[in-house]
Amino acid sequence: MYKLLSFDAGAGKNDPHTVSSLSRARYREIGELSLEEAFENFGVVGGTADLIERYFELFPEMQLYPDVLPTLERLAGRYRLAVVSNIDDDLLGATRLGWEFDLVCTAERAGGYKPDGTLFRYLIANAGVAVSEILHSGQSQFTDMVGGKPLSLTVCWITGTGRASRKQPDAARAGITRYSRFH
Fold first, then answer.
1. Contacts for 28-34 with beta carbons within 8 Å, 24 or more apart?
2. At 36, which helix (H) or strand (E)?
3. Are residues 132 and 70 in the same domain?
4. Are residues 88 and 177 in the same domain?
5. Pairing between strand 103-106 and 135-138?
6. Domain range spanning residue 71?
7. Which of 66, 86, 114, 169 is the most buried (most CB within 10 A)?
8. Per-10-residue mean pLDDT for the chain, 183 residues long?
9. Are residues 78 and 142 in the same domain?
10. What is the pLDDT of residues 87-129, one digit of tens each?
């Protein structure tokens, strides 16, 4: 999808900031475009972009990693916790997070997607603390590190996959459990 939006926007192929800032589409629309592009790219005949709805129907069934809730419980006593997500409010609401966050930052609320900075600027504006006091964690090198680092956010990459980082995070953790020791 990035390639499609980049081409349509007239952006260079390595300019995610331009593409993201031009995109004000809803997450469902982006999903349809992305699936359509994947079908075309892989020569899938008969596949239609409306099949993305099956993916969205599965949001209530998605499970958290087992270390997430215990880690949130440990951190909540000492820190305000926020969720920063590239989805819309309705899809976040359909996801069984099992946690009431102090701050909810969605692409819909911010009016833009990671990594262009819009969503991170929303976090910074609404966090109620200085940028230097915010620790952002995420598993995506592209959206989390590329978007957060230029705004002076401290970023911790949750690796989970064992892959090497192409960008330099402030820290890297194999899972979220060790998070409560990062400060």
1. 28/52, 28/53, 28/56, 28/88, 28/91, 30/1, 30/113, 31/55, 31/56, 33/1, 33/4, 33/5, 34/1, 34/4
2. helix 27-41
3. yes
4. yes
5. unpaired
6. 60-181
7. 114
8. 39 44 73 88 83 90 91 93 95 94 96 91 97 91 84 85 56 54 48
9. yes
10. 999 999 999 999 999 999 999 999 999 888 899 999 999 999 9
Amino acid residing at 80: R
From start to end of the chain, where are the E strands?
A: 82-85, 103-106, 135-138, 154-158, 171-173
In angstroms, rounded to a whole number, what is the distance separating the alpha carbons of residues 2 and 168?
A: 22
The tally of domains found in the chain comes to 2
Q: Quick one: tokens of 21?
A: 């800032």
Cis preceding linkage at 16, omega within 30: no
Q: How far apart are CA 150 and CA 5, in angstroms?
A: 23
Taking the CA atoms of residue 96, residue 58, residue 52 and residue 136 in that order, the dihedral angle to the nearest 10 degrees is: 30
Structure tokens at 164: 């090497």
